[in-house]
Amino acid sequence: MKILVINAGSSSLKYQLFEMEGTVVLCSGIVERIGLESGIITHKTFDAEGNATKVKKELPIPNHNVGLTEVVALLTDGENGVIQNTDDIQAVGHRVVHGGEFFNKPTVITTEVKEKIRECFQLAPLHNPANLQGIEDCTNIFAKATQVAVFDTAFHQTMPSKSYRYAVPAELYEKNGVRVYGMHGTSHKYVSETAIDYLGLKGKNSKVITIHLGNGCSMSAVRNGECIDTSMGFSPLDGLMMGTRSGDIDPAVVFYLIDKLGMKSDDVYDLLNKKSGMLGITGDSDMRDIEARFNAGDEAAILGLHMYTYRIKKYIGAYLAALNGADAIVFTAGVGENDHGVRLLAANDLEHLGIAVDVAKNDKLRASDIEEIQTADSKIKVLVVPTNEELEIALLTQKIIG
Ligand SMILES: Nc1ncnc2c1ncn2[C@@H]1O[C@H](COP(=O)(O)OP(=O)(O)O)[C@@H](O)[C@H]1O
Ligand SMILES: CC(=O)OP(=O)(O)O
Ligand SMILES: [Mg+2]
């Protein structure tokens, strides 16, 4: 059975095509820098021995729809494509960021499910519209395939009410579902399970802090494989500082912008989601561009990176308190896996809490597999675990369609 997985992030579209017998990856790829001046598509096909052939294209990708059209052309390309025609795919597993209180597990997509995903647009404005667009496009392109939604919010459903409730009048939760949902759950689940397995703690007591740093960023405190707290909230705007999102901010700022500066609420929402975070402080949202400026001594980039990593450090402290210690902290996603500078700034000067990073190990790491970067006397392990949301989604999709 062939399952295609579509993972639409806020700045990227990742995909993998699996032959589920033996979970063999037939091809995989990423469309990056969506919405920026120039986009990049990297497409890899694998032969029976697992050797990759890579195609890289640079072109403007104004939105996810254009990205997906390019991907389908690569999949079905007469010479290099991995499928003869679109009917070869039995199921498409879609990452959907926000499932609200509607979904706590994967589901086969129906008209009703699409309506509920649409109802959550306001809660994840950079994601759910792209996710639904992907579902509509794939329903047209892969007409014979079963479409399945896997929700970012599902893993966080184990949080206790003291973590997920906001201190606002109770009926806002009871009647309107105003609560912490948390996102990136598929990634937090995958990397925490991988770390727990790696540490030999499966079925035993375990405490892990997962740090997902992509364009969107979030952290989770995971006890015995279950999420007990997470940094994103009602929407993916909360918590850590991100590529274009502010993260934690005093809500009084919103009223100041509206009442004193005369901004419309839509514009404030746009400002906090699309013009803030690293973009707001440095003028760039892509961490590779910011790192280059940081290394050249650019003041805004230096401030931005210090703000970004200081907030991660504060959440590490908070989750060490919530869990009463940890076996490991785990860095993952585009920035977490690739940016040694961010990892070092976020996890240095934490010896008092039992965390010490080995600078040389961290510097030379090029993670394609799970790696340890702590010093010999660090009480807590510091791991880099490449996330694989696509594999997790493929397995969940296979399970649901039997
Ligand atoms: N080698 C690298 N060094 C630093 N940052 C990187 C590197 N490769 C990717 N990134 C950063 O990772 C981020 C994208 O991460 P990703 O997990 O793909 O995001 P998303 O899924 O939210 O679109 C971008 O900010 C990008 O600059
Ligand atoms: C929820 C979220 O922020 O996702 P991404 O990091 O893929 O944009
Ligand atoms: Mg992502």
Textual characterization of the structure:
It is a single chain. The chain is of the alpha/beta class and 402 residues long. The protein has two domains: 150 residues, ATPase, nucleotide binding domain (Nucleotidyltransferase, domain 5, 2-Layer Sandwich); 183 residues, Nucleotidyltransferase, domain 5 (2-Layer Sandwich). The chain contains 15 helices and 14 strands. Strands 5-4-3-2-1-6-8-7 form an eight-stranded mixed β-sheet, with helices on both faces. It binds adenosine-5'-diphosphate, acetylphosphate and magnesium ion. Acetylphosphate binds next to loops. This is Acetate kinase. GO terms for molecular function: acetate kinase activity; ATP binding; magnesium ion binding.
Average residue-wise pLDDT: 95
Uncertain segments: none
Quaternary structure state of the chains depicted: single chain
Distinct compounds present: adenosine-5'-diphosphate, acetylphosphate, magnesium ion
**What is the CATH C level class of the largest domain, in words?**
Alpha Beta
Largest sheet: 8 strands, mixed
Proportion of residues in extended strands: 15-25%
Please give the order of strands in the largest beta sheet: 5-4-3-2-1-6-8-7
Computed Rg: 21 Å
* Helical fraction: 25-40%
User: Could you say what the CATH topology of the largest domain is called?
Assistant: Nucleotidyltransferase, domain 5
Number of domains: 2
- Judged by helices, strands and strand pairing, the structural class is alpha/beta
* Strand segment tally: 14
Q: Could you give the order of the helices and strands?
A: EEEEEHEEHHEHHHEEEHHHHHEHHHEEH
Shape: globular
User: Termini separation (Å)?
Assistant: 11 Å
Please name the CATH architecture of the largest domain: 2-Layer Sandwich
CATH superfamily of the largest domain, by name, is ATPase, nucleotide binding domain
**Given the structure, what is the number of helices?**
15
